[in-house]
Every structure is written in structure tokens, then in C-alpha cells.
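User: C-alpha cells for this one?
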Amino acid sequence: MVFVRRYALRDLEGRLREFTPEQMWERVSAFVARAEGDREKWRARFRQLLEGFRFVPGGRILFGAGNPRRVTLFNCYYVPIREDSIFGITRWMAEAARTYAAGGGVGTNVDVLRPRGTATGSAGLVASGPVSFMEVFSALTGVMGSAEGRRGALMMTLRADHPDVLEFVAAKSDPQRTRLQHANVSLRVPDRFFEVLDADGELRLWFRTPRELVERKVPARAVWEAVVEAAWASAEPGLLFWDTVTREATAQYGGLEVEGVNVCGEVPMEPYGACNLGSLNLAAFVQDPFGPHAQVDWAALEETAGLAVRFLDNVVTVGATRHPLRAQRRASERSRRVGLGVMGVADALAMLGVRYGSEESVRWVEDCLRRVRDAAYAASVELARERGPFPVFDARNHERSPFIQRLPDHLRRALRRWGLRNAALLAIAPTGSISLLAGVSSGIEPIFGLRYTRLVGGVRHPAEHPLLAAYRNRTGRQDADWPTAHQVDPLRRVRMQAAAQRYVDQSISSTVNLPASAGRDVVERVYRSAWELGCKGITVFREGSRAAVLDAATTSPVAVCTLCEPGSGSGDRTEPGYRRAVCGQRDARPT
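Assistant:
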């Protein structure tokens, strides 16, 4: 169902031209091999890479590679509002609309816009503030998405010391939950905010216009409590720990300085930057699953990670003419940014007999992501030796990044000698529909529910997590004792994310699920510990803070997912049907 609806090739009249994933793999591998001198050799190697969903490219690649329609191969973009003016606002709308029309999602920062009530040079006399324009941007996203049969995707962020911060924080907390339906919102928070908060001090809010300096102070505690209340009540805003983001960024030079994030927040980018995503399916590398000798084929995983980097670097080349805007093509070719991630983490742990959230699982995630990091960086160095580094690479500036300083010595020596082909390499995306396609859990998230109801064409269908069938066949037992998203301790979820973040040079999209009974203090601890442990961003979803999709309760652990059908969600994060992080985690609930 997911394959046919989302990725199977159709001609310009809409007639289906592919009927199996194998046909899709042939199309995609042949298209991506166009960047190679020996196309047939690399077509065959890329075909093996995709076999069995061991590596799953981002949805835009699966849909767009070899497609006669002019669609982008890049999931999301950061499109800046260039100036605080009507021209800047309408220019952004035009650029965002073109990006949506090509199938890309958009992230932007709205703190460029002056606060509500400040003077303007127009007939309006005073500004209406960034939140008023957020409503317009959200409406545009919904209209463009509807026009092409898939929902648009938009992330809007604001710096924590903007004068309209309290209005921004509460923007999606209206009782009917009708505002900003086609957008996600996150607050960019610096380290200084927590220092002022701990000192019980006042936060300076400011904005400079051509006519005045708008400045006032509010208790940092008031802002913090507003954030916690809104996240508890409506699951937004998420937080972006901006000093951690910029401090750990690998290429803060040459015009590649990160300014904003993509729709899901896992790729901080320079203006007009693009995310080129793909995920390793960790479950595909477990040998003897559920057996006494269950183990990961580390050599195969590392080899696959290196080949996946080459695949994604080729997408930068073959997808260059598919960008909606020239500025996006220039930014992508200058940085050659890619985002190799993982999915099926929870499935792999279950196969190995390791409980998600345990200390052993944290150590396993660290070991796994360290291996993927090293293999990815080794591949990028080799590509730089073969093809040249990304155009603005500078070894001295690159090594200023704490992330680069943590690389093994042999990789740092190779980096100095040959450079890197890609300014950044790793990002863990939500992997919504592509996880459904591969039949595994999303990103680094726990299994959402062992059994659930899927809404397809207005009809509810009972379903179960695909791994259960393999478990029954291997063990003869009917029920598995795997912790699901609402059963894992929320602070352990944060620890898992922080453990992975240390080995990911960009970021991780993740949402911590909370039961309806969770208090505001739990949200506060989750948000605070995420900053303390070195995460780059975090969101929560408390059950019931969005409208429920089923009223009936059952005695079995059932999850309800309305997001698996294309077009049923409000922004794709990488695929239609996405809210914040993973399919089912924002709009589905166990019943």
C-alpha cells in the first residue's frame, strides 16, 4: 500500500508503471549511477545496496529519481526571510511556494520580523508581529500541499530573546487547536537562557528596527513556564538548543554557517541549504535474530554505510538540476551536505534481546553510531581523494569543530591530507513512510505499538508491528515483551538520543511520548535534561494533547495511526502524514 501510493513510478497521465519495490530499486540505482564514469558497475552496486531495504533513500529520492515529473530529490530546505519588509515576506512566500510545488519541505526563522506594535513605514503604522505572518505562511503551506495532492511541510522557529517570544510559544495552544495547522514550531534557546533561569534572573528581549531599539525584560522563569505549559498542552513548541547546534557544527565558515533547520529539525543548514537523506536499516544487519547467537554483522554495516555515502553524494550531482531555486542548487553544490541516518533501531534491539532504554541499549546505540560515523567519514575522505573536497573546504577551519576533534586520529590525518567530500554527513530523520515501506521502527524511536489500527481510505484496518510475525516464527511464542513508546521512561528516551547525538554531526529528530497523566514537571525534566545531556533539539507528545482518533479502549496494547495514509497529516517531515517526528507519534495513541 505505501509503495504503490507513495513511491511507485507513474507516467505523466498518472498510470502506474511500477508494481514492485524491485522495479523501484532498478530505477533509482540506474539514475543515481549517472554520476559515475562506469555507470553499469555502480548501478549494480547501488542495486545491491537497496536490496532488502538495507539502505533506504529519502522519500524524495525514491519518488523523484528517474521520474519524468520535475520534482526535487531533496526532502527539505531552509529558506530564509531575507529582510523585515513586505518585499522580504512576499519573496519568502514565492520561494516557499516554488519549493512546495517541487515536493520539498521548508524551514525558516521568523525572528527576522519586527515585534507586534513597533513602528513601520507603511500605511499600517505599526507592525502586526511575526506570529500574524506565521498564520499566512501556514495557510500557504496547506494550500500548496493540497494543490499537488500531498501536504506541505513547514517548520518555523524563533530566537528565545525576541520580544514576541511569549506570543510565539502560545501560538498553537488555542483550545480548538486550529491555529498553524500546517506548520511545526520550535524555539531556539541559547545556553545563556538556562544560566539566567537558574539565577532566577530576567531575560532581555530585544529587536532593532531602522527606527528604534525595542527592548524590555521579563523573568526567564515566565518564559520557561510558558514553554512547558504549551508543550504539555499542545505538544509544541519543540526546543532547539542553538549554542549546541552551532558549537558542534562541522562547517561554520565559508558561507556555510548554520542559520536554521529543516522541517523535522535534524539538519541545521546555511541559507538555502538542502537535506539529502537516507537511512541504514539496522534490523537488516542482525544475524540469527531472536536466537542464542544473535549479533550484528558489523563489517557489512560499515561497508554499507560507506557505499550509502557515495550514493547520497551522487544524488547531490544528479539532483542538481531539480532544485526549485538557483540559490538552493548553489548552496547544495557548495556544501555537498548529506544526511545518512538509521532506522529500525528498536527492531534490531528486540532481535538481539536487548531492552530498549536499558543501559545495555544505550551502550549498543553508541557503539553502532560510532561505527557508522567512522565508516561515513572514511568514505567521504575517499571521495574527496577521488573527486575533490566540497568547494569551500578548509582543513584548519573544519577541525575547529568539537565533533571533528572527536574523530579517530587516522581519520583526522586523512582529512587534513585529502579533505572531505561533504561538509556534513550524518542526520537521523524521522523516516516515516520509508520505515513503513521497510517494515521497521522509525529512526531511533521505540516501537510505537505492537498492534494498532490503520486508517486507510476512511476504513480502519487492524494491523501489527511487522517484526511480530518473525518473532512468532522463530520462538513459537505469540506475545513479545518489547517496550513500546508509551512504556519507555521518558528520561531514558532522552539518554538514548543524547548517546546517538555524540556520533551524529548534524542532528536527530525525536519525540518523547508521555502518558496523558504526565504532569508539567515531566515535560520540564525532559526538556531540561535534553539540554544538559547535549541533545540539539527535543519535542514531547503527551497523549491526549491532540484530538484522539479512537474512543474505544481495549485490553491489548493497540496504537491507532491515521498518518499512514498519504495526505492524512499536516506536513511530511520527510513524508506526507508527518507531524513532528515519527509516524503515529503525534496523531496516534494507544487505546
